[in-house]
Amino acid sequence: MLHTTEIQDGYDWGRLNLSSVTEESSFQEFLRTAELAGTEFQAEKLNIQFINPKQGVGLLSRNERLNIEKKHKDNKDLLKIPRRPKWTPETSAEDLQKAERDSFLDWRRNLALLQEDEDIILTPYEKNLEFWRQLWRVVERSDVIVQIVDARNPLLFRSEDLEKYVKEVNPQKMNMILVNKSDLLTDEQRKHWAEYFDQQGIRTAFFSAALATEELKEEAKNKEEKPAKTEIKERKAQEKDNENNEEEEESGEESACEEEEEEETPADLSLKELKKAASEINDTLDKLEAKLEKIEKKLPTPEEEKSNKLFKKNSSKLLTREELIELFKNVYEGPTYTEKVTTIGLVGYPNVGKSSTINALMTEKKVSVSATPGKTKHFQTLYLDKDLLLCDCPGLVMPSFVLTKADMILNGILPIDQMRDHVPAVNLLCSRIPRHVLEDKYGIIIAKPMEGEDPNRCPHSEELLLAYGYNRGFMTSNGQPDQSRSARYVCKDYVNGKLLYCVAPPTVEQSVYHTFPERVRKEVEEKSLPHQQQRAMRVKTNTSSTELDSKFFSGQSSAAHVKGRTNFPHIRLANDGSLVETDPSAKPWRSVKKERREKLRKKFGHLDQH
């Protein structure tokens, strides 16, 4: 009789740690079913691709970019958000939920086919049906749907299909765009966007939640820190005002007496003076009539007035908190969902400042602020005033077209802390922000291009991260700058707006729209830096032509060049050029002095240099 652990059936029973498994993930379940079925899977370990960091990894060429943009235009109509299926009061809750699930699955299948067939990259969109149900409810309840977008790239965060869906639900509902973080834009840039959205026919407002919260904090501090000295000054000012009023009353009585004396002597006006005054009045009236006729010609017709009431020209002014509240109150004039209350639904991506705008409008924290989607589980209704109601929707990531995955990281759609490959994102950042801006911002010196390269090219990710990591002291255990850690800091600075890059509207050229400041710091040559810093700025130091030449010519060969065989251990070359044979039985090391023992860290110190 044999125990089960002694049976030679291919399993090493003694090595396994047996444990009861009641729950497992989908991946573990797949592997377990494959093991039960007797199939084996081998990991591909030899398909390794070595990437040169100086080739611009992750950057698209001009032709690739144009091809992808053409695909985006052709498939723009297929990029939709899920619709709520039509229902009546007679439909039961189970039937409605089943219809919603079926339509949602169809929508997901269509987007998956679009990605596979056309090879298009989409942003990671919300795949939980409950979040979309909250959006449907917000759209049905709200009178005005406000999409909050980031001022640096508004078109990426704008969903045109959501605007169509709002009109499908009720044509009387109104769409609006709130451009948050507008303090990062200049006046001219805001004008360009206001003109672009005028052409698109959608109402737009510019706002900065960060500035509004700062103003509220300053007001609160001023109220709390009001010293007693100001009260004393106010009292003194009141006493002075009272004294001045008494003096004015006395002077007023004297002037009244003088006026009475003057009234007693009335002025006699002649008829000629009266006629002159009448003629002057007639001339001014004629001029006013001519001006009124010109103004009437410029005034719009009643039909144009109706269209202007429906849509007003967008202002490029950066609105304050009070001005934005006033705009929300007066922007909608149609029938409301609730009587005498204008309901405004706020929809937006995570990380565009949706929660911060609500908190700035409410003057106190009502909504928790978070950069990750899914913080708000259900829509919330917040009364801003008696006749104004805010309807907060959970942060939804809607599907939109993106050129590369690096673009999603820099726009804050993908979390930077979960970034696996930092090279494409940093290369894209370096292509957008010039070398001198990075050097001035961080106080670093980025390695210049090598001989034979374009001297005006953008820095590579490796060059920027090595200089940044060495300057900040982010070093690995091998003594080299930590590039992955440095990349996270640099990308976060870009997302937060410290490294500013604003995308232009389609009607304006990017070079005209966004200009960078000139160099502030003086240029420092790489030769003047310490040798340790020079080595840290480049991974491979012996690459320049001068270093190669010096290394080649410095080496002097002491061996003799003999034609034919050179491996003769018992024959050596004498000083006069003759060959001398040595005794193979002799011990040559006896006459040679022994070398002094040297510390290994000194002997191999050149290998530790990075």
Automatic annotation (TrEMBL):
The keyword GTP-binding applies. Residues 590-604 have a biased composition (Basic residues). GO terms for molecular function: GTP binding; GTPase activity. The keyword Cytoplasm applies. Residues 218-269, 579-610 are annotated as: Disordered. Residues 218-243 have a biased composition (Basic and acidic residues). PROSITE patterns: G_CP. It comes from Musca domestica. It holds the Pfam family MMR_HSR1. This is Large subunit GTPase 1 homolog. GO terms for cellular component: cytosol. GO terms for biological process: ribosomal subunit export from nucleus.
